[in-house]
C-alpha cells in the first residue's frame, strides 16, 4: 500500500513540474495612448503655428514614432508629448497633412489643416449672377475682373461656338484687375442667346467665379455672298437661282423688288421663302435677249423689318444677242413601237436655241409633217400613226434661236415602226370612273385603274343597293368601237369574279342604250386577266356603263356585290397596218 | 493481490517503454529527383511583377524531391522550349489565333543563368528572371515563358515535371493583371450637353488595367465593351489612359492625374471642379470610434467622344476601390 502512495506522490510531483512554464511570464505591458482630446483635427492659419500633443506612454521615447506625411508639418517628440509645427503657407488653398504617433499597433492619426491666402475673382464685385448684355452685332466684349490669382482657366462651354476668348496680355499677378476679352460672332437669330463662362485659377481650382454673356437678338435680315451679287445670263435667257440667307418667318421676313425697267424681262418664279438665318433662294426667269446689245437689271432684296436696315442688290447683266445660227441637239436616235416611233436626243453643251422642230415625210398619208417643240429642254418625242409598211422614216430635227434663226446643222435620224395595232389603249383616269354601289368599307373605285392587280374595286355588301351594281366610264373623247379586258380580284375565293356583264352607252348620261352583253370564261386563278370582246356601236358615245349580271358565286347576281381588280379599255384603231398597206 | 498489482505495474512500465520506441523518420522515403515547380497544368503563375521603371525579378524554381535533404549537389540546367506553350494555345483557343497567348518578347526580360546547382543540404534553387519594359505589354494579352530541364546536363529529374510555363502578370499600385480589378463609380455624373442636357449617374463598376508604373487604363464612360474575349476593338475605341503624377501641395495623400486617349478615343482633360479635381487620392475615412476605411480613388473631370461628330460627354467621376493597407492585395 505504501508503495502505491509513493508512486502516486511521484506522479503528482512530475505532473506539477510539467505545469511550470519554461519562459518568463512577468511581462511589462508597453502602452502608448494619445488622449481623445488631442486627436481632434488641428487647424492652423496662414502664418502657421505650433501645437502640443500629449502622449501617455511607458515606452522609451526612442522606441515610439511621431511622423508627418507633409514637408510643411514638422513633428518633434519629447517625453510625454509631441510638438507639431506648421510652416507659413504661400498657397491660395487649404492644405492638409496627417501626423502619426505610433508604437507597434498602437497608432494614432491627427489631421492637420492649414488655411491658405484668400482667393479673389470678382466681376462687378460678385462671384456669380453677373449677366453681361451685349448687342447682337457687338464683336468684342471686354470684362474687368478683380483677382489676385493667375487666371489661367477660362472655360467656355463646348455648346457655345459664338464666343471665343481673345488673346490678352497677362498682367502681373500683383495686379488687382485684369481685363478679359472675348470675341463674339454676331447673332443672326431672332432670339437672344446665352453663354455661361467659368473663371478658375490653377492657384485655387476650388474658387470658381461664373458670369453670363447675353447676346441680344437680331431683327429680320437678308444676306448673300458677294459671288451671287453679279450674275451674267446668256442671251437665250435662263432660269436663275439666287441663294441667300434670311432669319425670319416665311413671307414676312423680306421682299424683293425687280427694277422697274427690268420687269418686262425678269420675272419671279416664286414668292419669298421662310425663318432663322439660313440658306434660301429665289428663282427668276431671264427671258431671251433678242436685242443686239447687253442689258442690265437689278433685283433688290430687302428686309421688311422696319428696324433692320438690311438689304442687298443683285445686278444681272444679260449678254447681247449675237445673230449666229444656234447649235443643234446631239446623239439623236429613233426607237420603234407598235404604231409609233420614239425620238430621243441629248442637248448640246451650250443651249442657245429656244424652239425645235421635227419634220418628216409620211408616205402613208403622203404629206410633210412638222412637229414643233416650244422649249429648249425636251429630249424625247413620240411620233404617232407610223406603220411598218411605210418602211424607213426620216426625221429632221432643227433648232431655232430667239429671233427664229434656224440652225445650220439639221440633225437627221432614221427609224422604222412596228406594225400599227388594231386597237389602241385608252388611258383611263380616276376622274373618268363612277359607280352607283361603292362599298364603304373596302375596294375604292380608283383601284380599277391604279395599275396594281393586288388592289381591287368592291361593290356594296355592307349597305343595300336596290338596283344592279355598275361602274361607269366618262370618256374625254367619243368612241365608236372598242375592246376591253379586266382582271379579277387577287385574293379571296373568287366568288366576286364577274361572269356575265351588260354594256350600255350614252352621251347624256340619262338615256342609255344597251350595246352588248358578254359572258366570260372565268380563270382558275386569282388576279388573272379576262379578255373581253369587241364592241362596235351604232354611233360615237362618250359614256360607257358596265353592269355585271352574274358573278362566280351568284348567277344571277340579284343586285348583289361583285369585285374586280383592273379594267382596261382599247379604242379601235382606224389607221391599222392593213389600212396603211392599202394606201401605199 | 500483491502479485497481481506488481504485474499491472510492470505491464504499464513496459507499455511506456514500448511507446517510446519511435519510427525512424530519418530514413529517406523517396528518391532525389530535380523538378520544376508548377501546378497540375505545369503552369507557374504565383508571381506578379511590379511595374517599376527599373524592372522587377521573378523566379523559376527548381526543386529536389525526397523526404530528406540530399548530401550531394545536384546540377540543374535549363533550356528554352515551346511545346507547353503550343499545347496551351491549342487546348485553350484551338484555332482562335487572335486570342493566342504570346511568348514574352525578348526585350522584356533577361534570363541570366541557365545552369545552377541545388547545393547539398538544400532542396531548391531559384533562377532569376529579370523583367523589364513591361509597360510595353498589352494588359489584354497573355504572356508566357516556357522552359524545360536540359536532360543532357541534368542527371536525375522527374520526367513529368521537367517543363514549366511561367505566366507573366504585372501590377502597379492601382491594378493588376492577375485578377480583375474593379473601381466603383461614386457620386459621379456623365453629362451630354444640349438644349436639354442628358445627365446620367453611373453606379456601375469600371475595370482598371495596369499599363505602366503609374498608369492605368479604364473605359471613358459607362459604355460597356461586352464580352471581354472579343472586345479588343471596343476597348481601343472607348478607353482612356490615366497617369498618376506627383503629390499635390495641398494634400500628400493626393497625386495629380493626367488623362489621355488610350488609342482612338477623343478625350480632353478639364480643369478641376470641386471634388472632381483630377487627382488620385488615398481617402481615409475615419469613424467616430476610431476605425478607418481606406479607399483608392480616381477623381476625374474630363470630356470625351467616341465619334468625331458626336458632342463631347462631360464626365465628373469618383472611381473608388476599398482596400486594406495592411494586406497586400493591392
Strand content of chain A: over 45%
- How many helices of chain A does DSSP assign? 2
Let me know the number of strands of chain B.
23
* Total of DSSP H or I helical runs spanning 4+ residues of chain B: 3
What would you call the structural class of chain B?
mainly beta
In terms of quaternary structure, what is this? heterodimer
Order of helices and strands of chain B: HEEEEEHEEEEEEEEEEEEHEEEEEE
Mean pLDDT of chain A: 87
Helix content of chain B: 10-25%
User: What is the radius of gyration of chain B computed over CA atoms, rounded to a whole number of angstroms?
Assistant: 29 Å
What is the residue-averaged pLDDT of chain B?
90
Q: Extract low-pLDDT stretches of chain B.
A: none
Largest protein interface, residues of each chain: A-B, 23 and 21 residues
Q: How many β-strands of chain A, per DSSP? A: 41
User: How much beta of chain B, percentage-wise?
Assistant: 35-45%
Largest sheet of chain B: 11 strands, antiparallel
- What kind of sheet is the major sheet of chain A? 7 strands, antiparallel
Shape of chain B: extended
Enumerate the spans of chain A where pLDDT stays under 50 for 5 or more consecutive residues: none
Walkthrough of the structure:
The complex is a heterodimer of chains A (584) and B (330). With 584 residues, chain A is mainly β. In chain A, the strands form eleven sheets. In chain A, strands 33, 34, 36, 37, 38, 39 and 41 form a seven-stranded antiparallel sheet that branches. A four-stranded mixed sheet of chain A has the order 2-9-8-5, with no helix packed on it. In chain A, strands 10-12-15-14 form a four-stranded antiparallel sheet, with no helix packed on it. In chain A, β24 and β25 form a beta hairpin. Chain A starts with a helix and ends with a helix. With 330 residues, chain B is mostly beta strands. In chain B, the strands form four sheets. In chain B, strands 13, 14, 15, 16, 17, 18, 19, 20, 21, 22 and 23 form an eleven-stranded antiparallel sheet that branches. In chain B, strands 2, 5, 6, 8, 10 and 11 form a six-stranded mixed sheet that branches. Chain B has a four-stranded antiparallel sheet with strand order 1-4-9-7, with no helix packed on it. The longest helix of chain B has 18 residues, at 2-19. The A-B interface holds A 4, 7, 69-70, 91, 93-98, 109, 153, 155, 157-159, 198, 200, 202, 205-206, 208 and B 5, 9, 193-194, 249-253, 270-274, 277, 284, 286, 292, 303, 311-312.
Amino acid at each position: 500500500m505504501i508503495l502505491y502512495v509513493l508512486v502516486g506522490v511521484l506522479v503528482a510531483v512530475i505532473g506539477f513540474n510539467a505545469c511550470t512554464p519554461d519562459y518568463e511570464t512577468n511581462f511589462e505591458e508597453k502602452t502608448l495612448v494619445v488622449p481623445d482630446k488631442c486627436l481632434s483635427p488641428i487647424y492652423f492659419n496662414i502664418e502657421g503655428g505650433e501645437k502640443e500633443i500629449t502622449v501617455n506612454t511607458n515606452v522609451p521615447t526612442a522606441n515610439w514614432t511621431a511622423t508627418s506625411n507633409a514637408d510643411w508639418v514638422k513633428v518633434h517628440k519629447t517625453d510625454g508629448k509631441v510638438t507639431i509645427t506648421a510652416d507659413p503657407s504661400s498657397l491660395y488653398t487649404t492644405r492638409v497633412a496627417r501626423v502619426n504617433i505610433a508604437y507597434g499597433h498602437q497608432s494614432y492619426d491627427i489631421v492637420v489643416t492649414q488655411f491658405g491666402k484668400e482667393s479673389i475673382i470678382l466681376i462687378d464685385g460678385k462671384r456669380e449672377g453677373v449677366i453681361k448684355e451685349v448687342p447682337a452685332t457687338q464683336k468684342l466684349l471686354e470684362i474687368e475682373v478683380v483677382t489676385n490669382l493667375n487666371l489661367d482657366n477660362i472655360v467656355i462651354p463646348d455648346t457655345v461656338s459664338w464666343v471665343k476668348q481673345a488673346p490678352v496680355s497677362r498682367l502681373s499677378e500683383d495686379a488687382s484687375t485684369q481685363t478679359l476679352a472675348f470675341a463674339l460672332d454676331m447673332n443672326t437669330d431672332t432670339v437672344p442667346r446665352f453663354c455661361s463662362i467659368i473663371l478658375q485659377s490653377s492657384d485655387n481650382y476650388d474658387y470658381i467665379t461664373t458670369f453670363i454673356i447675353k447676346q441680344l437678338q437680331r431683327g429680320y435680315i437678308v444676306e448673300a455672298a458677294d459671288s451671287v451679287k453679279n450674275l451674267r445670263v446668256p442671251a437665250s435667257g435662263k432660269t436663275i437661282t439666287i441663294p441667300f440667307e434670311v432669319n425670319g418667318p416665311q413671307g414676312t421676313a423680306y421682299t424683293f423688288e425687280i427694277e422697274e425697267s427690268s420687269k418686262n424681262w425678269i420675272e419671279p418664279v416664286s414668292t419669298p421663302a421662310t425663318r432663322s438665318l439660313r440658306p434660301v433662294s429665289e428663282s427668276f426667269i431671264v427671258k431671251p435677249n433678242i436685242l443686239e446689245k447687253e442689258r442690265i437689271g437689278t433685283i433688290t432684296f430687302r428686309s421688311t423689318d422696319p428696324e433692320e436696315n438690311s438689304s442687298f442688290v443683285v445686278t444681272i447683266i444679260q449678254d447681247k444677242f449675237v445673230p449666229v445660227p444656234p447649235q443643234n441637239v446631239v446623239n439623236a436616235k429613233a426607237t420603234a413601237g407598235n404604231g409609233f416611233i420614239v425620238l430621243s436626243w441629248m442637248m448640246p453643251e451650250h443651249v442657245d436655241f429656244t424652239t425645235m422642230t421635227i419634220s418628216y415625210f409620211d408616205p402613208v398619208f403622203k404629206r410633210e409633217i412638222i412637229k414643233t417643240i416650244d422649249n429648249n429642254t425636251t429630249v424625247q418625242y413620240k411620233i404617232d400613226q407610223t406603220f411598218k409598211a411605210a418602211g424607213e422614216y426620216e426625221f429632221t430635227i432643227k433648232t431655232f434661236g430667239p429671233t427664229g434663226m434656224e440652225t445650220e446643222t439639221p440633225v437627221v435620224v432614221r427609224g422604222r415602226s412596228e406594225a400599227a395595232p388594231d386597237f389602241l389603249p385608252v388611258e383611263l383616269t380616276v376622274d373618268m370612273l363612277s359607280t352607283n354601289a361603292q362599298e364603304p368599307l373596302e375596294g375604292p373605285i380608283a383601284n380599277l385603274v391604279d395599275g396594281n392587280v393586288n388592289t381591287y374595286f368592291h361593290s356594296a355588301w355592307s349597305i343595300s343597293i336596290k338596283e344592279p351594281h355598275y361602274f361607269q366610264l366618262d370618256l374625254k373623247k367619243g368612241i365608236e368601237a372598242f375592246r376591253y379586258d379586266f382582271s379579277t380580284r387577287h385574293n379571296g375565293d373568287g366568288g366576286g369574279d364577274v361572269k356575265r356583264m351588260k354594256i350600255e352607252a350614252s352621251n347624256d348620261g340619262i338615256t342609255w342604250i344597251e350595246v352588248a352583253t358578254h359572258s366570260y370564261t372565268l380563270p382558275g386563278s386569282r388576279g388573272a386577266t379576262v379578255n373581253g370582246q369587241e364592241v362596235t356601236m351604232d354611233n360615237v358615245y362618250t359614256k360607257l356603263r358596265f353592269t355585271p349580271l352574274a358573278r362566280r358565286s351568284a348567277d344571277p347576281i340579284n343586285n348583289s356585290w361583285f369585285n374586280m381588280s383592273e379594267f382596261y379599255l382599247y379604242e379601235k384603231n382606224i389607221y391599222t397596218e392593213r389600212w396603211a398597206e392599202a394606201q401605199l | 493481490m500483491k502479485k497481481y498489482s506488481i504485474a499491472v505495474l510492470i505491464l504499464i512500465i513496459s507499455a511506456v517503454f514500448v511507446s517510446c520506441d519511435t519510427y525512424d523518420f530519418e530514413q529517406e522515403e523517396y528518391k532525389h529527383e530535380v523538378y520544376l515547380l508548377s501546378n497540375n497544368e505545369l503552369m507557374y503563375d504565383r508571381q506578379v511583377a511590379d511595374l517599376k521603371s527599373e524592372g522587377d525579378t521573378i523566379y523559376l524554381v527548381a526543386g529536389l524531391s525526397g523526404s530528406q535533404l540530399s548530401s550531394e549537389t545536384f546540377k540543374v540546367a535549363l533550356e528554352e522550349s515551346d511545346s507547353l506553350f503550343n499545347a496551351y494555345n491549342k487546348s485553350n483557343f484551338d484555332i482562335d489565333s487572335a486570342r493566342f497567348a504570346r511568348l514574352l518578347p525578348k526585350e522584356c526580360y533577361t534570363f541570366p543563368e541557365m545552369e545552377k546547382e541545388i547545393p547539398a543540404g538544400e532542396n531548391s534553387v531559384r533562377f532569376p528572371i529579370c523583367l523589364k519594359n513591361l509597360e510595353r505589354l498589352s494588359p489584354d494579352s497573355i504572356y508566357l515563358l516556357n522552359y524545360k530541364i536540359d536532360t543532357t546536363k541534368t542527371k536525375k529529374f522527374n520526367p513529368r515535371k521537367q517543363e514549366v510555363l511561367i505566366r507573366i502578370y504585372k501590377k502597379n499600385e492601382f491594378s493588376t493583371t492577375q485578377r480583375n480589378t474593379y473601381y466603383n463609380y461614386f457620386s459621379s455624373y456623365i453629362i451630354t450637353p444640349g438644349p436639354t442636357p442628358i445627365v446620367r449617374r453611373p453606379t456601375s463598376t469600371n475595370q482598371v488595367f495596369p499599363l505602366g508604373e503609374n498608369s492605368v487604363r479604364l473605359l471613358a464612360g459607362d459604355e460597356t465593351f461586352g464580352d471581354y474575349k472579343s472586345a479588343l476593338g471596343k476597348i481601343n475605341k472607348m478607353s482612356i489612359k490615366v497617369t498618376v503624377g506627383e503629390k499635390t501641395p495641398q494634400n500628400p495623400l493626393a497625386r495629380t492625374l493626367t488623362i489621355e486617349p488610350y488609342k482612338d478615343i477623343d478625350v480632353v482633360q478639364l480643369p478641376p471642379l470641386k471634388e472632381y479635381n483630377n487627382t488620385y487620392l488615398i481617402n481615409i475615412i475615419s469613424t467616430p470610434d476610431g476605425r478607418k476605411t481606406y479607399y483608392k480613388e480616381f477623381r476625374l473631370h474630363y470630356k470625351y467622344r467616341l465619334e468625331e461628330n458626336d458632342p463631347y460627354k462631360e464626365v465628373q467621376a469618383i472611381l473608388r476601390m476599398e482596400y486594406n493597407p495592411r494586406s497586400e492585395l493591392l
